[in-house]
Design a protein that fits this description.
Largest interface: A-B, 63 and 62 residues
Largest sheet of chain A: 6 strands, parallel
Distance between the termini of chain A: 72 Å
Shape of chain A: elongated
Oligomer: homodimer
Order of helices and strands of chain A: HHHHEHEHEHEEHEHHEHEHEHEEE
Structural class of chain A: alpha/beta
Radius of gyration of chain A: 29 Å
Number of helices of chain A: 13
Chain lengths: 374, 374
DNA sequence: CTGTTAGCGCATTCAA
DNA sequence: TTGAATGCGCTAACAG
């Protein structure tokens, strides 16, 4: 019965003396893990009030050097770990941001997450991660997440029901990353259409005329935009774009696409792929079948993954500032939590076309700093 | 002043009648986001007590269908999002696990994280991620993390001061992943020494006699074990192992190592590398310089990253059940939180040697299911 | 089946 | 510079 508080159901509600926890048992000598040290045990051990303990721990108010030291010692001896939930309840803040991603294969998500975590940490926020792929009830998971965080960032391609996003929003700040801007929800992203157009123009510049877009424009908002840029470039060149080859961009799909090309089901002298994994896989299978890339057919991707530097020919692609995108999202979340207004226009970060050999340019020695264009 | 509670500083502490929040204002008609809906507002709106609201939300106790519906409606209308902190404080746990990783480049960490998140989610736990690379005060970050979670998993190679691990442990369950088992701290990992020995024996089987290990055995516990297996294989073959080439395994290091080989500073007819990124990079630079792999020199790696299937020759390597490792860690954490005893012996998961062409075997068509050995 | 009540551990006025 | 008291929103006995 050391910690004496809130327990006077007997006495009349007059501020009875409540004997300052008299020097009864001088508490256990030293050592040993108090599994449940609380601010009360620390205060008692230091011989101060919990308010004082709180002050030194928060660095708030002014506490004498001597008292501070006593408290710090007690904290140390007791191995005190504050209970975050109690603090959160009192201050009404979780000091945590949520991030919703579909999954983590490939460098894109990881980069994004690293950027997000890094900036969040700088701002004193921890990050709680939610992966949607394979989850049965995503809406439930997101609501659960909302319970523990102050704000949430969602990747556009994460399978989160728009209804959920809207519901959350209004309760907690939400930002959509690389998604289609929704009414009243802030979004950040990397530029797509313009770079796609530049990239396509570059391929056109090699004299290719029969280009096909590989990837599903309706699968994700950024793919949609890339396709739009592709189409724009073709039209500007007086060409009529063929129907895109709509495949999801898992690695395995590349083989199927390659087969269709080899069998003549698809005819093209250049492939503009929705991302590098797809492009890489297709190129590899084509090469295995004896086709020359880019001689017979050019292949370009998007994302500039590591492998794109190692294959031959090097993969021509587009690099996005993915890490910065993550940082930006964390940053905006934090500002919004602290009262900043929702930004009406999406923030879009510039991207960079990386020219290597697969587009038809002379092969470069691989794994060297890429040539920059744009 | 709708929610009437805990406010009778006037009346004597006798259980005064406290007028049941008489049907004063019938509350706002419909619609609109109550920014701060609480269990009280929901209860009031549904015309029940907060206990009932809690019951339907927790699925605990028995509540009549009609009442349940009223509550659910109120929750819906008010767009009620419970405050996790309050619940955590009351039930005294966070329903969250922490995961400490150095960073997220390459597929290893991502896989691990996916496994961890997936299993944690199944168990109803959310995951809070902490990346140590680039953090100034890691100990502080970890303590901060400990504040919000019930248990923590740490990757062995994460730069977490052992002292912190020990401090945390005893307060919250801790498991070390792929690290050196520490006294009194549970650990899980993938098998290293034995597979390394098998792999080395395989290379030896191709007639190579001058093998060198590339990677720093003191850099991470699992590298240490792989090196040990390497040494064991050589000794068993009557060979004296050369000093390992101690480099960190960032991608950039490969070039430097390749240079030393080309310049004759290092002589070897086979390289056993600490991981695939290193092996890949070295092989690539060697090839660029005109060396034949595996003709002139064999190169093998560890991890079986995606690129290892795409390069030629295919990279011979060792696949670890990384995802399963993550799942196992989450699983153990959860069990420990729920009272399970600390496992004295480390749980170690089996690995698999993947034979492709870079070790000296006949080149395989790439990007096909790997041949299994072991 | 439902309501009352007492904390959970902490931050924070308000006094002293 | 310090302490006493109050409440954050929720769960969980305990009554009824």
């Amino acid at each position: 019965m050391a910690t004496a508080r809130k327990q006077n159901p007997d006495a009349t509600s007059t501020p009875a003396v409540s004997g300052h926890s008299a020097p009864s048992a001088p508490s256990a000598p030293s050592a040993a893990h108090h599994p449940g040290a609380t601010i009360y045990s620390v205060a008692e051990r230091a011989g101060v009030s919990i308010a004082t303990v709180s002050r030194v721990l928060q660095g708030a108010g002014t506490v004498s050097a001597k008292t501070t030291q006593k408290v710090l010692d007690a904290v140390d001896e007791l191995d005190y770990v504050p209970l975050g939930a109690a603090r959160s309840l009192a201050v009404r803040h979780h000091e945590a941001h949520g991030l919703v991603l579909p999954e983590l294969t490939g460098p894109y998500y990881s980069e994004l997450l690293m950027g997000f975590e890094s900036r969040a940490a700088e701002l004193g926020q921890s990050v709680t991660l939610l992966l949607t792929d394979g989850k049965a009830d995503i809406a439930r998971a997101v609501r659960q997440l909302a319970t523990h965080v102050d704000a949430i960032a969602v990747l556009g391609s994460a399978a989160m029901p728009p209804a959920v996003a809207k519901a959350l929003h209004g309760k907690k700040p939400v930002v959509i990353i690389a998604g289609s801007p929704q009414e009243g929800i802030e979004s950040v992203g990397a530029e797509n259409a313009h770079s796609a157009q530049k990239l396509t123009e570059h391929v056109l510049g090699h004299g290719r005329r029969s280009l096909v877009f590989v990837g599903d424009p309706d699968g994700a908002p950024d793919i949609h935009d890339r396709h739009a840029g592709f189409v724009a470039a073709l039209r500007a060149a007086g060409l009529e774009p063929a129907e895109p080859v709509r495949v999801p961009f898992r690695e395995g799909e590349g083989e199927a696409v390659a087969e269709r090309i080899l069998s003549g089901d698809i005819t093209a002298d250049a492939l503009v792929c929705a991302n590098d994994e797809l492009a890489l896989s297709i190129m590899s299978h084509l090469q295995d079948a004896g086709r020359d890339v880019p001689g017979d057919i050019a292949v370009v991707g998007w994302d500039d993954v590591m492998t794109s530097r190692y294959v031959r020919p090097g993969m021509t692609t587009v690099r996005q500032p993915v890490r910065e995108l993550g940082e930006l999202a964390a940053e905006r979340l934090h500002q919004r939590v602290h009262g900043a207004e929702l930004l009406a226009a999406p923030r879009v970060l510039p991207t960079q076309v990386i020219i290597r050999g697969s587009c038809g340019c002379a092969a470069q020695p691989r794994a060297t700093p890429p040539t920059r264009a744009t």
